[in-house]
Specification:
Shape: globular
Bound molecules: magnesium ion
Largest sheet: 6 strands, mixed
Strand content: 15-25%
Helix content: 25-40%
Length: 444
Amino acid sequence: MDSDKRLFGTNGIRGIPNQDLSTEFAMDIGKAIGTYFDGGIVIGRDTRSTGEMIKSSVIAGILSTGNSVTDLGILPTPAIQYYAKTHGIYGVIITASHNPPMYNGIKAISNDGTELDRKDEIKIEEIYWQRNFKKVEWNRIGNYSYVNDAIDLYINSVIKKVDADAIEKRRFRVLADPGNGAAYFSTPYLLSKLGCSVVTLNANPDGKFTSRNAEPKPENLGSLIDLMKTGKFDLGIAHDGDADRAVFIDEAGNFIDGDKSLSLIVRNVAKKGDKVVTPISSSDAILEICREKGAELIRTRVGAPVVARAMIENSAIIGGEENGGVIYGKHQYCRDGAMTISLMLESMARSGRKISELISELPQYYMEKLQIERKIDWEIIKKNLVKSVKADETDGVKIEEKNGWVLIRPSGTENIIRIYGESKDRKAAEEIAHRYYGIIDRMQ
Ligand code: MG
């Protein structure tokens, strides 16, 4: 096999256990991680039914290298990241986030809790391919311990970062749907601690995700939306499988787009002189809010680790993507579902308004998203597009139009070209996106 073959994708290693993700493979990845890192490794997982098998295999591999393992059990990805950060140790997360239930994955994190740099992943991959594993004598095999206070540590820290008294006073009625995933315990616990009256849906851990798909998109949240329509709750919340993301439903049962919830949180958090980081694909609503607050918006390539890295480099206060993954610099530099919820409740508490009112007061923009699904030579398209206009090439090609903008970018993993058109006018957003769809379609 190629010694330079890539194992870690954009979200770690993903596969179907006992097919492409075998116990032997997971153990060897554990050995490679244990060989590369020193000083103990923390591990945790989501609720997937294959999680214990994969986790045990990784643990065995790590222990054989002489590294100790601290097992945190089942908990959200950001809770594992927070433990790694506060203890200054490297970590492994067994999760496939929002993927279908047959998948699982192995993700390594740095000793500051952030996602691993590509250069560290390459080193781990080299050790794996060369089978250059450290193997200690029997009396130096690593120590295993189970720790059960990681959720408390995480939730208490989240609560300290918001105005908990203001939230508590409102006695919000919240309907929480962790989707049978990693936040099945921690999110109801957080909400209770914030003085909310909590009703849960899909809060039993079910690693086969039999109730709903783990991706918190409106089409997967029918039960939550229907229950919100009863008018008995102030806010509806849903997570993805590993709870690094949280999305919201308003008190009337309307799904809130991630760009809008992020805008609302930025409006609540950002102050004059602060820095805010979002990918190039994010709505101009956030730009408008930053201008209103006197904050600076920095735009990066698409991807949460890129946003997090830019936040660290710029000491930014807040950042995130439109899929519900908000990153709060005062807590930790990674997407964080519980932090997102707490900041949203704080926005509602401080304003004294309903969530739907706060959303309707945001600058209104419309985004039309299209995609061309076939193999197209991106370099040719790019050359043609930037030939006659000034374009931003941070990620793909972004072109300013007189009443909006268009972003055209190729998918990193599939034969897809994505086209986003945004404008304050819905028809203009559609026109921009469809016009560029036609231009690209005619190019090849
Ligand atoms: Mg996730």
